[in-house]
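Working notes for the structural subgroup meeting. M.R. asked for a predicted model of this chain before we commit to crystallization trials. I am recording the input and output together here so anyone reviewing the notebook later can reproduce the run.

Input as submitted:
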Amino acid sequence: MPTAATVTSTQVVVAAFPVGMVKQSDMTVLHATLPPLAEGQVMIETSYLSLDPAIRYWLNPADTYVPGAKLGEPVRCFAAGRISHSVHPEYQVGDVVSGLMNSQSHVIYDIPANAKIGMGLSRCDLSLGPLSQHLGVLGMPGMTAYFGLLERGKPVAGNTVFVSAASGTVGTTVGQIAKLKGCRVIGSAGGAAKCRWLVEEMGFDGAFDYKSESAAVALKRLCPQGVDVYFDNVGGDMLDGVLLNLARGARVVLCGALSQYNEGGYAGPRNYMKLIMARATMSGIIVFDFFPQWPAATTEIAGWIKAGHMRPTEHIEVGIEKFPQALVALFAGAHTGKQLVQVNSGPYAAGAVA
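Returned structure, recorded in token form:
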């Protein structure tokens, strides 16, 4: 086995800070020899890189809840793989893990440094589901949906739940959990085909194409009694349209702002006074705040999947060099479900369940 000092990592690095919509030219693929591991570090041979809308936010140079992007450094993303070297007593060679890493074939992960900002590695129990699912419904997107809906949205049986960007992993997971809780579920997506898919395949009660009908009009038609829980992945005009259609006591969960990530700024809601009229609340969700509770939530979601109550969906591109174009495709809405890039071949990348 080579030492850590001789491992060459293929990396997707930041070539330019995106202006507007992210472009393939904002990233470039290169190779770098990794340094020896320091105390407290592990090296991870990645099997999958996760494509998530938050990457656009993480490509900005400003520090937020994570450090800002830097030119020439790898693009931040969630990843999963096998520990190939370890200088940490709690992690052994062969452990299968996932976490917020970088878009690399081999990653040096500093466990103490990440712990200081509330991040950590999750051990992937492959008896719960294949490794790819640990970046989707059993990973960060699934945890975002689970805790955002249940801890912030607090749905009650009989409630009407609306989720925007419903054809992605977070959206489909929110919708399916809400159905399990006895709610009526409405989603929005781009295009009639995706809307049909949400209803016919994902079990939503209704859906509308935001490209052809505004949220304000569609929700008046689909939710005549108002929206009890809104899980917001989009922001902008979508959020404003929902605020016009709130039920009394509604809960608005702010998760993302897909409509504005590429706009160079964030516009606040114009219709916020409707929160007062509806006696409604609006709160944000940062999934890392719930990190200690992830294992229990993962186990519960895996049980729902095995019982046939939830259906994960995936689209996988093969080869780390596909990462830039796959990220662009994510924002173009080219696919439904969880979108991933497979990096290294082997039993974990093949999606085998232990």
